[in-house]
């Protein structure tokens, strides 16, 4: 995701639809990749020191008062509008770089107070900038469509601002008076505090328990939980779940109050801007039809028999008399071994051959650079992300590489984001960003291509069982799990909109009901203990309103593209890269439709469910054959 959240040469046909060749294997061998692997990012490419960052922050703070002089000038002439928008854009570009450094420095170790303070300074400056330019939307709306379009026609330099101006005009009915816009902008910093509090609490302050696993004492924090929840021993999985989730349960009230503050802030903003609902507010900026969200939830529920089929298959393969929630992450077969980061990079390069030689070469070159922080360490921000906001430098990535297949898949996923940013940066800065609605397509497409490669190149029956099960689990977690999150988020926001009390206990009840329905608890598919209803408190993405559903829509789109790319459909590949190169030069929903699919219709989601059923057919046939 581009934290908000590529000049591609003509697609080459060499290797696009061919199997992984010996020559390619040599080019991307682990021995070669080991020389490419860099596990710590180099933030000095942003600023050579903290002191240099502070100098730039002060310089930017001195520039902000100058923006006030632009108020009331944008409608004077086409040239005046261009000068004003360029000045604003230039400052936004520098602030993005400043915020990137501060945020990533803080994420390296959330326990370092100085770094957290620097992030707060960056956030404060960003909010001051937002307040300083809060007049722009209202002013453009007042100028009117006819005059603005006339300016664009008369001044070629305004072409790079066309999409932003079009969006402002479209959102005029939700734009307030300049004074009201300034007031909302000044409240932005306060609105961000629930997410900041949650991040510090869960990443730095929760009292993680110590447990003994195979004679070794470990601190069961978020990272070790992820590492051990897939342990082959069901007793250890049960031990891990029973030790980990009571920590969140103990803080259910506090985290509930924190999330309630986030919800109330969103509802306030939606009402202030005259949106019918919180989800309409979230979709409004990019003009995404609400039918996309509703279709996803509807089709995910319609597809639950397929999910339950897979969960029953898991129980059969794992020989579980009664599957529990703690059994959801254990692989159905043992992998051939652990993976080094170098091996993960080699597999990724091999699997992404269908994207073309140019893509693979650029990705291989990027692996040699210090773009990624992948070393697990105490206090590091949990999860993974890509930050592509430093337009003049390169993307940065954060993850913790734990040497398992999930880490390999995460690496392929996050580098899909990074390459998207590389390609979208062929656009002028003003159009180089992209909506999450598209952002998760190239990342999840990379995951699916990797999964297909692992199935096709499995050397033994167990390897193929493992690869198929990993593909199925990817679809389970990225489609059904994210759709479940989306349904929870919708229910939580609707409760807040109705003025119902929002408590941690109440949120856990909502989540538990969904958890049981999605996992077939009442049908005896998977037993869900009431304790696990607190899992909502573990999901940081909920503090980015209506963000997670886009994983599910995007994996459906990714499945569409991955299937065509694997078949060597060069026309599809061209449309795919056209979409990636477009950045934010157009609204995301029309961009995906131009690429060939409509995410407001049921079909993409039904196609993904069919893909899941086909994979299960293949897995069941393989298991029934009994061949080694």
UniProtKB/TrEMBL annotation:
Pfam families: Peptidase_M3, Peptidase_M3_N. CDD domains: M3B_PepF. Keywords: Hydrolase, Metal-binding, Metalloprotease, Protease, Signal, Zinc. One of its GO terms (molecular function) is metal ion binding. Its EC number is 3.4.24.-. GO terms for biological process: peptide metabolic process; proteolysis. Binds 1 zinc ion. Its cofactor is Zn(2+). Residues 1-22 form the signal peptide. Gene3D superfamilies: Oligoendopeptidase f, C-terminal domain, Oligopeptidase f, N-terminal domain, putative peptidase helix hairpin domain like. InterPro entries: OligopepF_N_dom (IPR013647), OligoPept_F_C (IPR042088), Pept_M3A_M3B (IPR045090), Pept_M3A_M3B_dom (IPR001567), Peptidase_M3B (IPR004438). It is an enzyme of class 3 (hydrolase). Residues 139-206 form the Oligopeptidase F N-terminal domain. Residues 228-606 form the Peptidase M3A/M3B catalytic domain. SUPFAM superfamilies: Metalloproteases ('zincins'), catalytic domain. Has oligopeptidase activity and degrades a variety of small bioactive peptides. NCBIfam families: pepF. Belongs to the peptidase M3B family. This is Oligopeptidase F. It comes from Paucibacter sediminis. The lineage of its organism: Bacteria, Pseudomonadati, Pseudomonadota, Betaproteobacteria, Burkholderiales.
